[in-house]
Write a structure and sequence with these properties.
It is built from 8 helices and 19 strands. By secondary structure, it is α+β, with helices and mostly antiparallel strands. Strands 1-2-3-4-5-6-7-8 form an 8-stranded antiparallel β-barrel. Strands 9-10-11-12-13-16-17-18 form an 8-stranded antiparallel beta barrel. A two-stranded antiparallel sheet has the order 14-15.
Length: about 425
């Protein structure tokens, strides 16, 4: 099994942990549902000369739970979200050049504007997809969206219950679907789709809400200190398109509120093998622009910065988003010029190379690192353990563009839990 496949498997296993957390509850305090769904929409163009597409059509089938219990504090704090798993077949509207995707996607669904209506919900899914058609320089050169069979998948939808009949909710939905390989092979423009849907949610009878009515939790906060180390993979450009490692370490500290909401400030350090090899070998752009780097390849292959971290703690599972500021990432100048440039044949049959322009957008992307992913903790966060370890799977980005996919191992230390009456 390749490293990239291992990352994808770890990612899915972590999010499936949300479902496993709920599985441990008494059946009398939960109810299940099944929801077949038909989606129609449009696959957006990923690049110039992208293959033409007809309507995108998807069929999804979800199995989920209504979490009525207050046994876990995160269910209480998040107002009892639904959790489950979605299986699906996606036809992008061009079977020859773009093909189909077969997706497996754990999800979580929240009620929105509950004070005004109990019919509107926000659905978020994260997982993986197998794509049966990819970019090929000879047979499929204009599909720059997907280059690998296995890809990350993300879905964000709003659902509205139009009509309810006994144990069936008839729903309409509107949202967004994204597929990408996380910069592990290029080209990787990603597939983005805007979709509308109709579905029917078949609910099993709700047997008891006794726990929901009687159990509440005190407000609490806890200071934490964290350390993690990670091993990632990416490619540099279409010319340097082999996978190499990215090594990282980070420290952080912050607060955990009500055993569910985690906020912190941290510092990260990263080392890119692709950057190191490019500098050490004195490749073209370094030789032309920064020849002084060649004697110090390690220095110019590094990156460090600070970040703000936010995380939802769902029992054993953590859903994390970080955003920060890079103090030092000198090689990104070369990275940008390679990836934002292009080449063409002039009238004499010569190849002309045009480098990416170092504009304000370049400066913004160089400065703003982002990180999105999942963690699986050894001990449930509901227990507020003093010591805890986790494994994580994340996509790291330069602003909104994928930089590398990563597996990480981390440790958290917490000070004493402090409670306060509501």
């Amino acid at each position: 099994m390749s490293y990239y496949v291992k990352i994808k498997v770890a990612f899915c296993v972590a999010f499936i942990g949300i479902c496993c957390t709920v599985q441990g509850q008494d059946l009398e305090e939960t109810s299940t549902y099944m929801a077949p769904e038909l989606l129609i929409g449009k696959t957006l163009e990923a690049n110039s000369n992208f293959p033409e597409t007809n309507l995108q059509t998807d069929f999804l089938f979800s199995i989920g739970k209504h979490n009525l219990t207050n046994r876990s504090e995160w269910l209480y704090r998040l107002n009892h979200p639904r959790t489950g798993l979605t299986l699906g077949v996606i036809d992008f509207g061009n079977s020859e050049k773009i093909g189909k995707a077969y997706t497996l996607m754990p999800f979580i669904e929240f009620g929105v504007l509950k004070k005004k209506t109990n019919r509107l919900n926000l659905h978020i899914g994260l997982g993986g997809s197998y794509m049966d058609t990819q970019y090929d320089s000879t047979s499929n050169p204009f599909n720059n969206a997907i280059t690998t069979q296995l890809n990350w998948s993300f879905r964000s939808f709003f659902y509205y219950d139009v009509y309810r009949l006994n144990h069936v909710d008839f729903r309409v939905g509107l949202g967004y679907f994204h597929h990408s390989n996380g910069h592990t092979q290029l080209p990787n423009q990603g597939l983005n789709s805007l979709l509308a849907s109709v579905s029917a949610k078949f609910n099993s009878p709700k047997k008891s809400q006794k726990a929901l009515e009687h159990r509440e939790f005190e407000s609490s906060h806890q200071t934490y200190f964290g350390f993690r180390t990670g091993l990632g993979q990416n490619v540099l450009s279409e010319t340097f398109n082999s996978k190499k490692e990215v090594y990282s370490v980070a420290i952080s500290a912050g607060k955990i509120i009500n055993k569910t909401f985690k906020f912190g400030l941290g510092f990260h350090y990263r080392f890119y093998e692709h950057y190191y090899d490019y500098v050490k070998n004195g490749e073209a752009l370094v030789a032309d622009q920064e020849p002084g780097w060649i004697d110090q390849p390690y220095r110019y292959a590094t990156n460090y910065g600070v970040f703000l971290s936010s995380e939802l703690l769902l029992g054993h599972v953590g859903f994390e988003f970080d955003i920060g500021y890079n103090f030092y990432k000198p090689f990104y100048k070369i990275d940008w010029q390679l990836n934002q440039g292009y080449d063409y044949q002039n009238g004499n049959g010569e190849t002309v190379v045009v480098l990416g322009v170092l504009d304000d957008y370049y400066k913004l992307k160089k400065s703003v690192p982002a990180r999105l992913g999942l963690k699986y903790y050894l001990i449930s966060n509901d227990k507020a353990p003093q010591h805890n370890v986790y494994i994580g799977a994340h996509i790291n980005a330069n602003l909104g563009q994928a930089d590398f996919s990563e597996l990480s191992l981390g440790y958290n230390f917490r000070l004493q839990l402090k409670n306060k009456k509501n």
